[in-house]
Write a structure and sequence with these properties.
Blueprint lengths: L38 H22 L18 E7 L5 E5 L33 H7 L2 E8 L15 E7 L4 E7 L21 E5 L3 E2 L2 E2 L4 E3 L5 E6 L3 E5 L14 H10 L4 H6 L11 H15 L16 E4 L2 E6 L2 E6 L4 E4 L22
Antiparallel strand pairs: 1-2, 1-5, 3-4, 4-11, 5-10, 6-9, 6-11, 7-8, 12-13, 13-14, 14-15
C-alpha cells in the first residue's frame, strides 16, 4: 500500500485481489519440529523487507514511477522486554517500542527521513521518554540520532535512533534482549546505495553510580543474548538500523556531505572512506577528486563481467547504471561503462567485481 498506492486509505478490501502463496515448510511457515519464535518482530519483519525491496526494484525499472522507488526502511524491530515489580509495587511487563525509530530509506531525489520508522506500519509511533519513565522503572541516559547509521548513497538513508538506559525506582528487573540484523544489515539500499548500519547492542555492568553514568566496560551482545537480570547500576545501550541509501555514494554532492558532517549525521572518517570526501575542517576539493578516482579504480581492479563490451543504446534500464541490451546472441545486462555483466538473465551480480571493506562503525557503546 505505501509503495504502490500511497494515496489510498488502508482498508480490508484492498487485500481481496491479493493471493499469498506460502506453502508449509518455508522459514515463515515453519512446521514442527522446526524451532520458531518472535514471528512478528523477526520472520514477518524480514519477509516484509524482501517484499518491499522487490516492489521498489520494479518501480525503479519503470520510468513513470522511478521517482517513488526507495530501498528498505527500518529493517529491524529489535526487542527489549522488561518485567518484574515496578516503582509502584505492581507487577509489570514492558515491550519497548523505541526500536521503531529506525531510519527510512532514501529516494532518487532526496534523503531518507531520520527515525522515520517502518513503511509497512500505517501509524508507527514511540512514546516520549518521560512517559516511558512514568509507567515503567526506566531511567534514560539518552535517546538521540546515531551517527553513520543511514545507508550511504547519492542520497543518504535516514539515521536511526539510539538509546541508553538503566533501571529507575527499583533495585532489579528481568530484561529480555533479542534482535536480528546485528550481524547483517537488513535495510538494503537501491541502485548502488549502501545498506543502513547493523544493530549494535551492549551491556555495561556497574555503569551507573547514584544515578550518574560512570566509566565501565561494555559487553557487546550478539543478536540473542536472551533473559538476564538488570539492576539500577547497569546500562543497556543500543543503536538500530538506518534506512538504505539510493545511488552511488561517490555521486553525492560534496556540499551535502559537508552538511552531514556539520550536523553530526556522518563522521569525517566515513565521509572519506565511503563518500570519498576528504575533510580538513572543510571539503578539500583536489584531495576529494583524487580519493574518488582511487575508489573507482579499486572497484574494477580485479576485472569483471563476461569480458564483452557494448556501446549501443539500451532497450530498458534496471537503474541509472544498469541497462538491458540485445544483439544477435540474445539479451544481456550491461553497465553505463559498456561492460556486459550477464547474458540471458538479470543476475548481473555474477559478473560484477566484488570487494569487502571493514565496518565503519566501531562496536563500542
Amino acid at each position: 500500500m505505501p509503495t504502490l498506492a500511497f494515496d489510498i486509505q488502508w482498508n480490508e478490501g484492498l487485500v481481496r485481489p491479493v493471493e499469498v502463496i506460502a506453502p508449509d515448510g518455508l522459514i515463515c511457515t515453519a512446521m514442527f519440529p522446526a524451532p520458531t519464535g518472535a514471528a512478528t518482530v523477526e520472520t514477518i519483519w524480514v519477509t516484509g523487507n524482501a517484499i518491499m525491496l522487490a516492489l521498489n526494484k520494479m518501480l525503479a525499472a519503470t520510468p513513470a514511477f522511478q521517482h517513488r522507488a526507495q530501498g528498505v526502511n527500518d529493517g529491524v524491530m529489535a526487542t527489549f522486554n522488561m518485567g518484574g515489580v515496578n516503582q509502584f509495587g505492581e507487577k509489570f511487563g514492558l515491550h519497548l517500542m523505541d526500536p521503531l525509530a529506525g531510519g527510512s530509506a532514501a529516494f532518487p531525489n532526496r534523503d531518507g527521513v531520520n527515525a522515520g520508522g517502518p513503511i509497512t506500519s500505517p501509524v508507527s509511533a514511540i512514546a516520549d521518554v518521560e512517559r516511558n519513565e512514568q509507567v515503567a522503572p526506566l531511567f534514560y541516559l539518552h535517546r538521540r540520532l546515531a551517527k553513520d547509521t543511514g545507508g550511504p548513497g547519492r542520497y543518504r538513508g535516514g539515521l536511526a535512533a539510539e538509546v541508553a538506559f538503566s533501571v529507575g525506582g527499583v533495585e532489579e528487573v528481568q530484561a529480555l534482549v533479542m534482535t536480528h540484523g546485528a550481524e547483517v544489515p537488513n535495510s538494503r539500499g537501491l541502485n548502488g546505495g549502501y545498506p543502513g548500519a547493523t544493530v549494535i547492542q551492549s551491556f555495561g555492568r556497574g555503569g551507573i553510580d547514584n544515578g550518574r553514568p560512570k566509566s565501565t566496560n561494555f559487553e557487546i551482545f550478539g543478536p540473542k543474548p536472551g533473559l538476564m537480570p538488570m539492576t539500577r547500576r547497569d546500562v543497556f545501550a543500543v543503536s538500530w538500523q538506518g534506512g538504505g541509501g539510493y545511488g552511488d555514494p561517490l555521486e553525492r554532492d560534496p556540499s551535502d556531505v559537508a552538511r552531514d558532517i556539520a550536523s553530526g549525521a556522518v563522521s569525517p572518517q566515513a565521509a572519506t572512506a565511503v563518500y570519498g570526501v576528504v575533510w580538513n575542517n572543510t571539503v578539500d576539493e583536489p584531495a576529494t577528486k583524487r580519493r574518488r578516482d582511487e575508489i573507482r579504480a579499486g572497484r574494477i581492479a580485479g576485472g569483471s563481467g563476461t569480458g564483452e563490451t557494448f556501446d549501443g543504446k539500451p532497450l530498458a534500464s534496471l537503474g541509472p547504471h544498469l541497462h538491458i541490451g540485445r544483439d544477435a546472441r540474445g539479451w544481456f545486462v550491461f553497465s553505463s561503462a559498456g561492460r556486459v555483466l550477464a547474458r540471458g538473465s538479470t543476475a548481473w551480480r555474477q559478473g560484477a567485481h566484488r570487494a569487502t571493506s571493514d565496518s565503519l562503525r566501531p562496536n563500542t557503546a
